[in-house]
UniProtKB/TrEMBL annotation:
Domain of life assignment: Eukaryota
Originating organism: Zygodon brevisetus
Keywords, comma-separated and alphabetical: Chloroplast, Plastid
Name of the featured protein: Ribulose-1,5-bisphosphate carboxylase/oxygenase large subunit
Region (Disordered): 1-24
Length: 24
């Protein structure tokens, strides 16, 4: 996961970003 998830925090994108990518 990259940091371009935007509103997602580094800790949030680690668990939540696995299921969905807001930055895509």
């Amino acid at each position: 996961m990259s940091c371009r998830e935007g509103p997602m925090s580094p800790q949030t994108e680690t668990k939540a970003g696995v299921g969905f990518k807001p930055g895509v």
